[in-house]
Amino acid sequence: MNGGSLGIRSGSYGSLDKPQQLQQQQNGGSNHLLPIQSTIRTKPAKMFKEKDRFLHWIRKSVGRRKVGMLLLCVISAAVFIWVLYVGKIMACFSGEDAQESDQVPNMSISPNISATVRKQNTTTLVFPPPPPSHFLGYSLPPGHPCNTFTLPPPPADRKRTGPRPCPVCYLPVEEAIALMPKLPSYSPVLKDLTYIYENPLTKNGEFGGSDFGGYPTVAQRTDSYDIRESMSVHCGFVRGTRAGRNTGYDIDEVDLDAMDQCRGVVVSSAIFAAFDNIQQPSNISEYSKRTVCFFMFVDDETEAYLQNSGQLGDSRKVGVWRIVLIHNPPYTDGRRTGKIPKLLPHRLFPNARFSIWIDGKLELVVDPYQILERHLWRKNATFAISRHYKRFDVFTEAEANKAAGKYDNASIDFQIDFYKSEGLSPYTLDKLPITSDVPEGCVVIREHVPISNLFACLWYNEVDRFTSRDQISFAIVRDKIRAKTNWTVNMFLDCERRNFVVQKYHREVLEKMEHMSPPPPLPLPPALPEILPPPRVPQETPMRRGIVRRGRRVGPRRHRKVIAGGRQGEPR
C-alpha cells in the first residue's frame, strides 16, 4: 500500500473519490498528499436503508392512528421533561437575581434602555452562621437580681476591724449547672502548649531551679514570655512524660488512673506534715458529689495520722475527699511542695476542664458550680483569684514578709531587685482596671486552656527559681503575659472569697486548745473578823422655843401689828 491510498474514503468504503484520483493523475501519480484536504463526509447509504427498515417495521406492526398517537405521546413527554429542566434553571437564576436585586435595584440592560428590578416573593437560601468554636460568655437576663446587686456597707462594729465575709449573688445550683460552657474558652495567641522533658537533666541555669522543675537559663525564661501560637516551656515534672510517674512527687498508678477519669470539675487541696485537719465541704449538692472530683494530696506523716485516728480506711476516702499519697516529695519545705498541686493541676489532671484549689485549713461552704459560675463563666474569665484584703503593692508585700519572718530577707531582697531590673514598679492607679498586684493565694479558680496553663507554669517557675512566697511573683508574670496577649486575671474581693470558704485553726492549735484545762478559780480572800457597828447615839435635835400643848408645839407668840381702825366692827 503506497502513500497515495491515504485520503477521504467514499460512502461505499471502496476506492478514493474520483476528483482526488483525477488530481493525483494530473500531478503525475505523485503519492504526496495535498496540504489541505476536505473533511466533509457524505452520509452512508447503508444508514438510510436501516432507517427505512425500522420505519417499515413500525408501520407494519401498528396502524397509522396508533403510530400518530405514539408519536404524540413521545413528543409530549419530551416537552414535559424540557419544561421541568428549563423551570429548574430559571428558578436558580431567579434566586441569584433576587439576591442581586437586594443590593443593586437599578440595572442597565442597554445604553438606551434601563429596567428596574423589583424584589419579588422568591425563596432565597439563607445558610446559618457556623457554630462557634469557643465559649463566648453570656449575660444574665434583664431584671435579674444579680444585675443590680451591690455590696452593702460594712457593719459598724468597732470591736471587729479585720477582714470579714460579704454577701455574694450566686445563682441557684441548678441554674449554675445549666450554664456550664459546652465549649472551651478562647485562648489568645497561644493555641498549643507542650512541656519540656529532660532526662538526664541539664543544669545550665545561672541560679535557682530544682531537679523537679528543671534548671532553665535566664535566656529560656525570657523566651517563655514571648507568647507564640505554639510553645514548649518548663512546667515541673521534667524527668517524666506523665506527671506523677517517676518524676518526683510520684503517685500510685491506681490514683493516676482515677485522676485521668476526671473530665469536668476538680476540687483539690493538700495537707503535709499533718499540719491541718481535713475539712469536709458543706452545702454541696448531690449532683456535685457525683460529678465533682475531690482530691486531697498528703504525705506519709499525714497518712499515718489519718490511719491512726481511724479516719482513713481501705476505701482511700475521708468523707468526699479521695486521699492521694505522695511519694518522693521534691522539696523538704512542705510549703513549696504544696505549690505543685496548687499551681499545676493541669499537669496532674490532664483531662479536667475546671479546677478549684483551696488550702488545707479552709472549709468549702458553697457548691463548686456556683463558685465557677460566679467568678469564671459570668465574667468570661479563665483564671480568678482574690486580692489581698489589705495590701495591693508588691514592695509592701515583700516588706511585710520580711517583718513576719516568712522567708529570709536576703532571698526576698534578691528577688525584688531582679524584678526591679525588669521594670516592676509600685502599684498606681495607672494600672486600672487591674486593682491589685498582690493576691490572697489560698484559693485559685481556673479553666484549663492553653493561656491559663502557661500562666500557671510560668508562675510556678518563679516560685521554683526564687522564694516560695507566690504573692511576690504573681504580678510580674501576669503583667508580662498581659503585655503580649491582653489576657488578665479576674481578681475579686477578699470578702467574696471569705463568703465561700471558712478558715479553721491548724491542728496543733486545736489540740492545745482541747488539752488546755481551764484556769483554776482564784482563791477567796481570808475572812475578815466581824466588827460590830458602834451603837447609834441619838442626837438631840435643837428645839424651837415655844409651848407644847397637847402634843404639839406651839410657836412663840408674836406681836401682832395692830392697825388703827382694824378692829372688828370699826371702820378702817
Summarize the structure.
This protein is an alpha/beta fold and 572 residues long. The chain is built from 18 helices and 17 strands.
Question: What key phrases describe this protein's structure?
Answer:
572 residues, two-stranded antiparallel sheet, 18 helices, 17 strands, 34% helix, 13% strand, extended, TOD1/MUCI70 glycosyltransferase-like domain-containing protein
State the distance separating the first and last CA atoms. 198 Å
Give the oligomeric state: single chain
**Class by SSE composition:** alpha/beta
Shape: extended
DSSP helical segment count:
18
Average residue-wise pLDDT:
80
- Helix fraction? 25-40%
Give the strand tally: 17
Radius of gyration: 50 Å
Hey, roughly how much beta strand do the residues contain?
5-15%
The largest sheet is: 9 strands, mixed
Low-confidence stretches: 1-44, 93-120, 566-572
Task: Describe how the helices and strands are arranged.
Elements: H1 18-26, H2 45-61, H3 64-103, E1 106-110, E2 113-116, H4 173-178, E3 192-195, H5 218-224, E4 230-233, E5 250-251, H6 253-260, E6 265-271, H7 286-291, E7 293-298, H8 300-308, E8 317-318, E9 321-327, H9 334-337, H10 339-343, H11 345-348, E10 354-358, E11 362-364, H12 368-377, E12 383-387, H13 394-404, H14 409-421, E13 439-447, H15 450-465, H16 470-485, E14 490-492, H17 494-500, E15 501-503, H18 507-515, E16 547-549, E17 552-554
Parallel strand pairs: 3-4, 6-7, 6-10, 7-9, 12-14
Antiparallel strand pairs: 1-2, 5-9, 8-9, 10-13, 11-15, 12-13, 16-17
Helix pairs in contact: 13-14, 13-16, 15-16
